[in-house]
Each structure stands twice: as C-alpha cells, then as structure tokens.
Design brief:
Helices cover 38% and strands 14% of the residues. The protein is of the alpha/beta class and 314 residues long. The chain has 2 domains: 7-132 and 294-309, Aspartate/ornithine carbamoyltransferase (Rossmann fold, 3-Layer(aba) Sandwich), CATH 3.40.50; 135-290, 3-Layer(aba) Sandwich (Rossmann fold). It has a 5-stranded parallel β-sheet with strand order 7-6-5-8-9. Helix 5 crosses helix 6. The chain starts with 11 loop residues before the first helix and ends in a 5-residue tail after the last helix. Bound molecules: phosphoric acid mono(formamide)ester. Phosphoric acid mono(formamide)ester is lined by residues 52-55, 128, 134, 137, 269-271.
Length: 314
C-alpha cells in the first residue's frame, strides 16, 4: 500500500493487519518511554486546508512517537490564503523533502489528485476530504469496537456479525462513508438512520440497511450506536427540519440511551453538537466511547504512518 485514500481500497486482511499493528502501537503508547526510532530522518507534513482538532493533533503526536520530523501546515496563515494552488503548495513541500503528506481538504478527491498527480513523491494519507472519506477515523472506530467487543483476544479478529447503527447527517459525512466500506469489509451489519433529506440517493447501492426511524433501529438492540455531527456548515434549510424536531426524532437523548442494553457502545467521531444529535447524558455515559476513540486515534495513525513510511511493506 503506497497511500491511504479510501477504506474501499482495504482488503479484509490488510484492514485486520492495520488494526493489529495499532495494537502494537497502543502498547508503545502505554510505555514510560513512548517513542520508537522507526521514522527517524523521515519528514511528515500535515497539510490542513480545513479546521481540525482531533485528527491534526493525533497525526502530529503519532509522527512524533515514531521519531519523524513533523511540520503542521494550516491553510490559514500560509500562502494558500494568497491564492497558491494545491499543485504549487505540494511541489513546495516536495522540494523540502516531505516523505509523507497527511491532507485534509474541503474538496472531495483532493488527496487522490495529489496521489495521482506526480507533483510530489510522498505517501499521501487522506485526513478527511469534503463529504467523501475519512479513512483513519473509520479505522480508529473499528479498532475501538474490536477492543470493546473482543478485549484482549482482539488480534487477528474482524467484526463479523457486529450490528452497527449509524445515525444522522449521512449525506455530508465522510466518516459514514469510510465506516460503511470498512465495517462491511470486516463483516459488520450496518444500518443507516436519517431523515430522507440527509441520506444520499446512492445508499441503495451500499452494503447497508436504511431506516428513517431511530426508535425502530434502537429496538433491535444494536451492539454499536454511532451518532454523527449535523454539519450545518455544509447544508441549507431545505435539508434540515428544525433543531428541536431533529433532536426529538433523530437525537440520542437520555431516554433513548437508558433503553439500550448496558453493553451497547455509544460512539461519536467528534466534534459533538451536544443537545442536538446527542445529549450530554449520552455523550458522558458509561456506554460512550468518545474519548476512547480519540485515544485510539493516535495508535491507528501511528500504525498507518509506520506502515506507509517505515519501508517494512510497500
Ligand atoms: N473526528 C474528526 O475528524 O475530528 P476533527 O475535525 O477535530 O479532526
């Protein structure tokens, strides 16, 4: 694997191998000395054209734990704000010797353009592109599910038969797309729940079931309920009922979470709109894995950088 652009590119074996490698990286993160010398002398550039907290910081931490040199570059405050193109920006980074480029961009497909362009000879990692994909988020979500469900016997395991309900703004969610491809590759059964205006028409060709009724979906006692952020910045009023109506019909509130089995996981990729798609009680409940997901994100990103840049597999 030269780049990580989409979870659709991962075979079942390669996905399991990445999750297993992340287990090794989690062991490193738990040590007193958290560093590995593996990527000493390599340069990782975090190229963020869109805002981020979790992904940007965890890629930076992951690269540092592998002893790489790291440059984090935000479009704000760079020459991109003076109109510099993706081509010129990436060629500038190539001239500085970047070995890996982690890119977040508002345009769906921007990481693929960079990987296919020949502008830069570096491994490209998609850190979220428009409404398309966010593969490391899906990997850290799968890692979190596997760890909760299989515990210390996780290594080598997939997610066969695990029932996952993904709820909310599917239309604009790159997290949903990456999760649908990865979870189905790993054998999970996925149900999408959303108002009709927040479901892409293409879901009829996806390996998922679809529902518009959250209470019906929750009554099937799923293993995982993954709530998605309402992406107000990407939609207009036609998509969205009202906050109150949305919350009433599709929000995971305290009553709904209390009806779930005690071992049902409540996931959210963050950032959360508390009180809209998820109540504070649900977000902070014992079922919630929100902070575990963040912590596991470092291990997954270490695994991805290690895999792409260490030269151990190409
Ligand atoms: N989940 C996620 O991608 O969060 P950030 O936007 O903070 O990186």
């Amino acid at each position: 694997m030269r780049h990580l652009l989409s979870t659709a590119d991962l075979s079942r074996d390669s996905a399991i191998a990445l999750l297993d490698l992340a287990e090794d990286m989690a062991d490193v993160s738990n040590r007193e000395v958290k560093k590995l010398p593996t990527l000493r002398g390599r340069t990782v550039v975090n190229l963020f054209f869109e805002d981020s907290t979790r992904t940007r910081v965890s890629f930076e931490l992951a690269a540092k734990r592998l002893s790489a040199d790291v440059i984090t570059f935000s479009a704000k405050g760079s020459s991109v704000s003076k109109g510099e193109s993706l081509k010129d920006t990436s060629q500038t980074l190539a001239a500085m010797g970047a070995d890996g480029v982690v890119i977040r961009h508002s345009a769906s497909g921007a990481p693929r353009v960079l990987a296919d362009s020949g502008w830069i000879d570096a491994a490209i990692v998609n850190a979220g592109d428009g409404t398309h994909e966010h593969p490391t988020q899906a990997l850290l979500d799968a890692f979190t599910m596997r760890k909760r469900i299989h515990g210390v016997a996780s290594r080598g395991r997939a997610l066969d038969g695990v029932r996952v309900v993904i709820v909310g703004d599917i239309l604009h969610s790159r997290v949903a797309r990456s999760n649908v491809w990865l979870l189905s590759t790993l054998g999970a059964e996925v149900t999408l729940v959303a108002p009709a205006t927040l479901l892409p028409v293409t879901t009829s060709t996806w390996p998922v079931a679809v529902s518009h009724n959250l209470d019906d979906a929750l009554s099937t006692t799923p293993d995982v309920v993954m709530m998605l952020r309402i992406q107000a910045e990407r939609m207009n009023a036609a998509f969205f009922p009202s906050s109150r109506e949305y919350s009433r019909q599709w929000g995971l509130d305290d009553d709904r979470v209390a009806r779930l089995p005690a071992d049902t996981m409540v996931m959210h990729p963050g950032p959360m709109n508390r009180g809209l798609e998820i109540s504070a009680g649900a977000a902070d409940s014992a079922r919630s894995t929100v902070l575990e997901q963040v912590a596991n994100g470092v291990s997954i990103r270490m695994a991805v950088l290690f895999h792409l840049l260490s030269g151990s597999d190409s």
